C-alpha cells in the first residue's frame, strides 16, 4: 500500500539527539592517576570472587588517555551527542572537600573536544562510583561514612553536584543526577552483586530513599549553579514488568515488583510521594522512619527530562506458580534477592531471542515504558539514555567485526521509539549503550555492548558494522527498511 514506505521507514524529527553512552568506571582506566581516590567499584572489583575473571577497571578501555581519539571516532561515525559520566573520586577525592582541578580538567577537555566536533555533551553525575571513603572509612579514610543507606551521603552528593556544575556549567547543557538508582540500592546493598556488595534488605531500602533525596538536593544545587538553559534529568531503569497470567496472584506479583522497581523512584520524583503499597509490602522490614518530612517533596518536581534505560522486559508470577524455576531468576545472579519483602515473586524468561546476557529481545517493552511515562510525567521530556545489547562479537580474518544481531536489535527498538512518538510520547533523543566495549560490571570484560570493538591487548578500536549502520541513522534521521544484512 502507498503509505508503506513512509509509515515503516521511521523518519525522526530534526533536532532529535542521536548519541552513544558510556560510564566513567567502565571505560576510563587511570584508576590511580591525577589525584583520583578509590571508589566502591575499585574496592569491589579488587576483591577476589566479586567480578568474573578477577577483572577490574584499572585500565578498562584506557579512555582517560585516549579521549581525543575517541571523540574523533564518534565524529567520524556521525554521532550527534555523547552521554558520559563523571568519576566522583576523580573530581572530589574522598567525596568531600575541595575539587581536584586535574580531575575536572579531564572533563573540561572532553566537553571542549565534543563541542569542537559538533557533538552535544550529556553529563551524568553518578554512574555507581561512590568514593570509597563515603562507604567505609575503615578502608583508608577518617570521615563518617556508610554509603547510600546513610542520609549524609545525599548531602555529600549535592555538594559534589554543585562543584561539577561550577566547573562545567558553561559547556554542558544536559545534566543527569543519577544513573539507575535501582541498581545502586538493590544490586549494591540487597543482592550484593554490585559494589559495595552488601546483602541487607533494609540497608537497600534506606539507600533507595537517600538516592531519591540525593537526586532532589543535587537538582536544587544544579539549578542554583547552572544557567537557565540547562536541562536536568535522571536516568532510571524502569522495569517493563508483566504478569505471567491475569490471575490475581500474578497481578499482585506484578504490582509488587512495579512498586520496588519503578514507583519507589517515580513516586517521589514525579509526584512527590512514595506509593502506600510499597510501605505496606515492606512494613515487616522497616517503618520507613528514615523518611523525614519534606524529603519526598525535595525529590519531586525537579525533572525537565526523564531518562529511560531499557534492555529487556520482565515476566513475574505469584510465589506458588508451578512454572517456578523456569528461566530468569530476577536475582541478578546472586543468592540474595534484590526485592526486599517480595523475595518469593517468581521471575520467568520472557519470550524472544536471547542476547549474550541471556536477556530477551522484546522492543515492545520500550514502547510500553515510553507510553507509560508520557502519561505519568506530562510536561517532562523523555530521553532513551541507554538501549543496546551484548553479543559474542569477534573480529573476522580481515579484522572487521560484523554484528547483524545488534543491528536488528537497534532497528527493532528504534522502530518502537518512533511508534511511541507517533502515539504522542515526547521523546527527544536516543543513546546507544555503548559507544565501545567496556567493563561490564560483575561480568568484567566478558560481555561486549559496544558499537565499537575494543581489543584490550592493544586498545585498538574497530567500529563494528552496527556502528556504521547506526551512524547512518544518526546522520540521516531515517531508519532504513529493510534491515541491511551486513
Ligand atoms: C545498565 O545497567 C548500566 O547503566 C550500564 O552501566 C551497563 O553496562 C548496561 O546497563 C548493561 O548491563 O536480573 O532481575 O536483577 C542495566 C542493569 C540489567 C539491571 C537488567 C537489572 C535485570 C534485573 N539492569 N537487570 S534482575
UniProtKB/TrEMBL annotation:
Positions with biased composition (Basic and acidic residues): 321-334
The keyword DNA damage belongs to this UniProt entry's keyword annotation: no
E.C. number(s) listed in UniProt: 3.2.1.21
Region ranges (Disordered): 1-15, 319-342
InterPro entries: GH, GH_1_N_CS, Glyco_hydro_1, Glyco_hydro_1_beta-glucosidase
Catalysed reactions listed for this entry: Hydrolysis of terminal, non-reducing beta-D-glucosyl residues with release of beta-D-glucose
SUPFAM superfamilies named among the record's database cross-references: (Trans)glycosidases (SSF51445)
Transmembrane stretches, start-end: none
PANTHER family: GLYCOSYL HYDROLASE, LP05116P
Protein name (record): Beta-glucosidase
Amino acid at each position: 500500500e502507498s503509505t508503506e514506505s513512509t509509515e515503516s521507514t521511521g523518519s525522526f524529527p530534526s533536532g532529535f539527539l542521536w548519541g552513544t553512552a558510556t560510564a566513567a568506571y567502565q571505560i576510563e582506566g587511570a584508576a590511580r592517576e591525577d589525584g583520583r581516590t578509590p571508589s566502591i567499584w575499585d574496592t569491589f572489583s579488587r576483591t577476589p570472587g566479586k567480578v568474573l575473571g578477577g577483572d577490574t577497571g584499572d585500565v578498562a578501555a584506557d579512555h582517560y588517555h585516549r579521549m581525543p581519539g575517541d571523540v574523533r571516532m564518534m565524529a567520524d561515525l556521525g554521532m550527534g551527542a555523547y552521554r558520559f559520566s563523571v568519576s566522583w573520586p576523580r573530581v572530589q577525592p574522598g567525596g568531600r572537600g575541595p575539587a581536584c582541578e586535574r580531575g575536572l580538567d579531564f572533563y573540561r577537555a572532553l566537553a571542549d573536544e565534543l563541542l569542537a566536533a559538533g557533538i552535544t555533551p550529556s553529563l551524568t553525575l553518578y554512574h555507581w562510583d561512590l568514593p570509597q571513603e563515603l562507604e567505609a572509612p575503615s578502608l583508608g579514610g577518617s570521615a563518617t561514612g556508610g554509603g547510600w543507606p546513610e542520609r549524609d551521603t545525599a548531602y555529600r552528593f549535592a555538594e559534589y553536584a554543585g562543584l561539577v556544575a561550577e566547573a562545567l556549567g558553561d559547556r554542558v547543557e544536559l545534566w543527569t543526577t543519577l544513573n539507575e538508582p535501582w541498581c545502586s540500592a538493590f544490586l549494591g546493598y540487597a543482592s550484593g552483586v554490585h559494589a559495595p556488595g552488601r546483602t541487607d534488605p533494609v540497608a537497600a531500602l534506606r539507600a533507595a530513599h537517600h538516592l531519591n533525596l540525593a537526586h532532589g538536593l543535587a537538582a536544587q544545587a544544579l539549578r542554583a549553579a547552572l544557567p537557565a538553559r540547562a536541562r536536568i534529568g535522571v536516568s532510571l531503569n524502569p522495569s517493563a514488568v508483566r504478569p505471567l497470567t491475569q490471575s490475581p496472584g500474578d497481578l499482585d506479583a506484578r504490582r509488587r515488583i512495579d512498586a520496588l522497581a519503578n514507583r519507589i523512584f517515580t513516586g517521589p520524583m514525579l509526584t512527590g510521594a512514595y506509593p502506600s503499597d510499597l510501605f505496606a509490602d515492606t512494613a515487616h522490614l522497616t517503618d520507613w522512619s528514615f523518611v523525614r518530612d519534606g524529603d519526598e517533596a525535595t525529590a519531586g518536581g525537579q525533572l525537565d527530562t526523564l531518562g529511560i534505560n531499557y534492555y529487556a522486559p520482565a515476566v513475574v508470577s505469584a510465589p506458588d506458580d508451578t512454572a517456578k524455576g523456569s528461566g530468569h531468576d530476577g536475582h541478578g545472579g546472586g543468592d540474595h534477592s534484590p526485592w526486599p519483602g517480595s523475595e518469593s515473586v517468581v521471575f520467568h524468561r520472557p519470550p524472544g531471542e536471547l542476547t549474550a546476557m541471556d536477556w530477551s529481545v522484546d522492543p515492545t517493552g520500550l514502547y510500553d515504558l515510553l507510553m507509560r511515562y508520557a502519561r505519568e510525567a506530562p510536561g517532562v521530556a523523555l530521553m532513551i539514555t541507554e538501549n543496546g545489547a551484548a553479543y559474542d562479537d569477534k573480529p573476522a580474518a580481515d579484522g572487521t567485526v560484523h554484528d547483524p544481531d545488534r543491528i536488528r536489535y537497534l532497528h527493532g527498538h528504534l522502530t518502537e521509539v518512533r511508534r511511541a512518538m507517533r502515539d504522542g510520547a515526547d521523546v527527544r533523543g536516543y543513546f546507544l549503550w555503548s559507544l565501545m566495549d567496556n567493563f561490564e560490571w560483575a561480568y568484567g570484560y566478558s560481555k561486549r555492548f559496544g558499537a565499537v570493538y575494543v581489543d584490550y591487548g592493544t586498545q585498538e578500536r574497530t567500529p563494528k558494522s552496527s556502528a556504521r549502520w547506526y551512524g547512518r541513522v544518526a546522520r540521516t534521521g531515517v531508519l532504513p527498511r529493510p534491515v541491511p544484512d551486513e
